[in-house]
């Protein structure tokens, strides 16, 4: 199936930026039971990276392309640098780029569905926060959101001297602890529910040995009564091995209507 690297100018970011795209291909290698099912407009998954990688990480370090081969799913992997997928007070409008501009760009380039029921978002670490952040603030846009080893307590990033420089702390957080503020996930979930919004179905996956494990457990306990959210835990750390296993699981969890649930592949191309 086609795997594309695309560069384009972002009006929101006011800079050239790149995306990786995995696009479905209905061809002679497509299993016959799926040929009448995999057709446009395609559902789309926006897949977000962590703080130390870019849009190529998912392609380079996981088998995501193989996992979606017979799903008829477009996977879009953008980059936002180290910006935490928020509108930075002294930097870039990454949230607006991910949730507003990028879907329009993808819609103009590819045959993707514009329906909420066909639109999903997921990410790892910083990208896990980004996925839940987008889902909480734009619940009418996504049917499902998944966080893998997510930084669900954004204050962890603010406090980290190893991950954030003083300049980044100013640019991204205005030198203010974001806990309890507009970018706090718990506050966002509460505000959405108060406004009568229907939040997407969600899942948080975290390894038992991950340094973010306890934060994910605490977050889940705070929001589990606010929305349809699952918690997946298993042995694993903050590693690509864990993310590879769990993105495969997430892909099967997504409510993709085009997929034949009773289809069982007869072979796997190595």
From TrEMBL:
Single GO term (MF): hydrolase activity
Pfam families: Esterase
Key words, A-Z: Hydrolase
InterPro entries tied to this protein: AB_hydrolase_fold (IPR029058), Esterase-like (IPR000801), Mycobacterial_A85_antigen (IPR050583)
Protein name in UniProt: Alpha/beta hydrolase
Taxonomic lineage from the root: Bacteria, Bacillati, Bacillota, Negativicutes, Veillonellales
């Amino acid at each position: 199936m086609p795997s594309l690297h695309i560069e384009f100018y972002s009006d929101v970011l006011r800079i050239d930026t790149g995306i990786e795209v995995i696009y479905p291909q209905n061809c002679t290698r497509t299993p016959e039971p799926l040929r009448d099912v995999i057709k446009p407009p395609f559902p789309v998954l926006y897949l977000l990276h962590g703080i130390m990688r870019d849009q190529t990480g998912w392609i380079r370090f996981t088998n995501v392309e193989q996992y979606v081969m017979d799903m008829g799913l477009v996977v879009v992997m953008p980059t936002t640098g180290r910006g935490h997928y928020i509108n930075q007070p002294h930097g870039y409008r990454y949230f607006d780029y991910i949730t507003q501009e990028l879907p329009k760009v993808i819609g103009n380039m590819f045959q993707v569905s514009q329906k909420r029921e066909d639109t999903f978002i997921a990410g790892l670490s910083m990208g896990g926060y980004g996925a839940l952040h987008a889902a909480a603030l734009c619940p009418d846009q996504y049917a499902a959101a998944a966080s893998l080893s997510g930084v669900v307590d954004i204050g962890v990033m603010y406090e980290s001297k190893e991950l954030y420089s003083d300049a980044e702390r100013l640019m991204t957080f205005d030198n203010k602890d974001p806990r309890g503020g507009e970018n706090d996930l718990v506050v966002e979930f509460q505000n959405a529910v108060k406004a009568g919004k229907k939040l997407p179905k969600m899942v948080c996956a975290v390894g038992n040995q991950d340094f973010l494990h306890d934060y994910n457990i605490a977050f889940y306990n705070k929001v589990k009564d606010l929305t349809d959210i699952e918690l997946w835990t298993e042995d694993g750390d903050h590693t690509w091995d864990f993310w590879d296993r769990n993105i495969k699981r997430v892909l099967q969890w997504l409510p993709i209507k085009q997929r034949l649930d009773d289809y069982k592949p007869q072979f796997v191309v190595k």
